[in-house]
Amino acid sequence: MYNTNLNHAAIKQIDGIDCIDIDNLPIKYVNHKFKSRNVNWSKLLMLVDISHASKKYATLVIEKHFTCYLLRDSTDAIINQRTAKECLLTKVFSDSIADVFNISNKRPIIHSKASLLPLQTRNHSRHHSWINANLVDYSISGRQSNSVFIYTPDDTIYIKVSERPSYLKKKFAEVQQMQLALLGMLSSLNICCREISQSVSNNPNDNPACRYGIPKEKLQQFILTFAKKFYLTNQENKKD
Questions:
Q1: First to last CA, the chain
Q2: Closest listed residue to residue 167, CA positions, set 113, 205, 120
Q3: The dihedral of CA 42, 213, 225, 176: what is its sign?
Q4: CA dist., res. 71 & res. 78, Å (int)
Q5: What span, in angstroms and rounded, lies between the C-alpha atoms of 99 and 200?
Q6: Residues 60, 68 contacting (CB under 8 angstroms)
C-alpha cells in the first residue's frame, strides 16, 4: 500500500514509475481540505497552483510522505505569509541576493525553512507552482514519454511535472547560487559574532534590559538602515 493520505486512485504508472500527475490530478482525490492551515515548511515538497481547476481552493500542498491537502489561499499568498514572519530572510532580502546574480525572471525565494523555485505558469494563471529545492530533486524517465519527475529519497511515489529539464536545471542552479551566497554572508557574521560575544561577556554594563537581545522590530530596522547606507555608500564610490 502507498504511504499517502491521497485517494490511491490518484496514483498512476507512467514509464513504470508510480506517480501523481499534478497537471491531471482530479481534485476529488484530495481528501483533506482547509480554509487555512499552517504549512509544515520543513517537510514541504511542493505548492501546486490549482486555481484553474477549483473555484474554492487555490493551492494543493504536498508534504513529505505525500501528506496532501487543499488550501484556499494562492501559492503567492502562502509564501508571503511565511516571509512576512522572517526577521532576516524576507522577500526583499531574497530578491537582493537574486539581483547580485542578475536573476530577473521567475526568481527563487529562500527563507529560513525552504528554498523555493517556481515552475512556469500554466492555464493562464497569475500564480506559480513552487518546488522546495531543499528536499527534492528531479529526473527524466528516459523512456518513450520522456516525462520529468520530482522526487525525494524518502518516498516511493514521484510527482510528474510538465516542465522542461533545461528550465529545472537552470532554476536549481540559481537556488544553489543564492544559497552559497547566503552561507558566505552568514559565515562572515558568525566570525564577527564570536568576537562580539566575548566583548559582551566582558562588558561591565549590567543593564538587565541588554541581556535579552533586541526586539525583532529593532533588528529589522537596523537591517533596513544598514542596507540603505551600504547602497548609498557604494553609489558614491562609483561616482569617484
A1: 68
A2: 120
A3: negative
A4: 9
A5: 35
A6: yes
CA distances from 205 to 90, 143, 200, 211, 237 (A): 33, 70, 9, 10, 38
Q: Give the start-end residues of each E strand in 54-107.
A: 59-63, 67-71
Which is nearest to 45 in space by CA: 121, 151, 138?
A: 151
Pairing of strands 148-151, 158-161: antiparallel
φ/ψ of 100, rounded to 5, equals -60, -35
Q: How far is CA 15 from the centre of its chain?
A: 29
Per-residue pLDDT in tens (0 to 9) along the chain, 240 residues: 678 999 999 999 998 899 999 999 999 999 999 999 999 999 999 999 999 999 999 999 999 989 999 999 999 999 999 998 887 777 888 888 888 888 888 999 998 899 999 999 988 889 999 999 999 999 987 666 678 999 998 888 999 999 999 999 999 999 999 888 888 877 766 666 665 566 555 555 555 555 555 566 666 666 666 666 666 666 655 555
* pTM for the full predicted model: 0.80
Q: Residue for cell digits 526586539?
A: 215
Judge contact between 20 and 12, C-beta under 8 A.
Answer: yes
| Structural contact between residues 69 and 37, judged by C-beta atoms closer than 8 angstroms | yes
Return the SS3 of 148.
strand
Alpha-carbon distance 130 to 144, whole Å?
Answer: 27
